[in-house]
Amino acid sequence: MEWIAILKCPITGKDLRALTPEEINTLNSKIAQGQVWQGDGKAFTEPLQKGLITSDGTYIYPIIKEIVLLLKDLVVVDSKDKIIKDTISDDKKLVKNFYDQKGWHTDEAGNYEDAVIYEDLRDVSKEYLRKCHDRVARFLNPSGTYMLDAASGALQFSDYLQYSANYKYRVCVDFSFQALSEAKRKLGDKGLCILCDMTNMPFKDGVMDGFVSLNTVYHIPKDEQATAIKELYRVLATNGKGVVVYDWYKHSPWMNFWLLPFRGFVFIKNRILDTFGKMTGTKGAERRLYFYAHTPEYFKENLPPYQLKVWRTVSVPFMRYYIHPWLGGKKILDWLYEKEEKSPEVYGLKGEYPMLVFEK
């Protein structure tokens, strides 16, 4: 397991190594006696078959179904005085729970629930979306040893696989065990799947030849988004390249213009529903996911240098409202793609989804 050399303990920063068979037997005896705990203080009750341990023997990280659990609150300790009680925030739990329980499960048609809710799966949009996915590959090194995918999700679109086609390993990190299970199933031995927090990457400096982070950072608490991107940059090797796809949302002047009437309707509808809920004592719909969009100015001030390019100008709501076969939808998207190709910086700034392109 050569890849262990790129990892580090997310608590101490120390090197990690594989547990020996003797250490696993000893640990499983302690588990059976109720003498082992998780970092969050919960009893650890399942016997281990594989795991990693810090060089000083303090912390143990289980490997379950070939997924390495490098999340602080899932660390395994054999003494209560080692319990760190450092659990993830409620906003992060919201994202984790959604994808474990719903987002990365498929419907009867074989589509992930995340795609059904948040993507445009219609035929009229497929070619445009494919070409937008292909754009990412232009700004990455074509080959290398480690390609980091943060957060990978379930690799729901086959287009995503091209980014690591000529890399030895695709390192998938995510909060969701379900996501990583799906990614591992698709990648096999090429996939290194790490359950961890993007704001505290368990990787040594400069070990990744490239990275992608697609439509993820805006689900991280707003005060930690810049930290997550800086972590991606920290682990990038010299001459490495990486791409973050972000969402300007209401900071996109073009989408604000085209979606204003629809957003106005939704705003009024939600106000009516909130008022009705208060009158009847019923609760409104619970939040599905955390979301926060920073401005372009915020990232310019808080990130390492990057180039701004366009990934996709239009949002899914825009496409669902305006793009239809009977309205010449495919021709509109073809025209839009050509405009994006000619002025990628302008469309990246004014449209919905920019690419932040990094290079060391």
State the distance separating the first and last CA atoms: 27 Å
CATH first level of the largest domain: which class? Answer: Alpha Beta
**Main beta sheet:** 11 strands, mixed
- Going by CATH, the architecture of the largest domain would be 3-Layer(aba) Sandwich
Q: If you consult CATH, what is the topology of the largest domain?
A: Rossmann fold
* Poorly predicted sequence stretches spanning 5 or more consecutive residues: none
Strand arrangement across the biggest beta sheet: 1-3-4-5-9-8-7-10-11-13-12
- Helix and strand run: EHEEEEEHHHEEHEEHEHHEHHHE
Count of all domains: 2
How would you characterize this protein structure?
- 37% of the residues lie in helices and 19% in strands.
- It is α/β, with parallel strands linked by helices and 360 residues long.
- The chain folds into two domains: 2-82, no CATH class; 97-250 and 288-359, 3-Layer(aba) Sandwich (Rossmann fold).
- It has an eleven-stranded mixed beta sheet with strand order 1-3-4-5-9-8-7-10-11-13-12. It has a two-stranded antiparallel sheet with strand order 2-6.
- The longest helix is centred in the C-terminal third of the chain and has 28 residues, at 253-280.
- It is globular, with a radius of gyration of 22 Å.
- The protein starts with 15 loop residues before the first strand and ends with a strand.
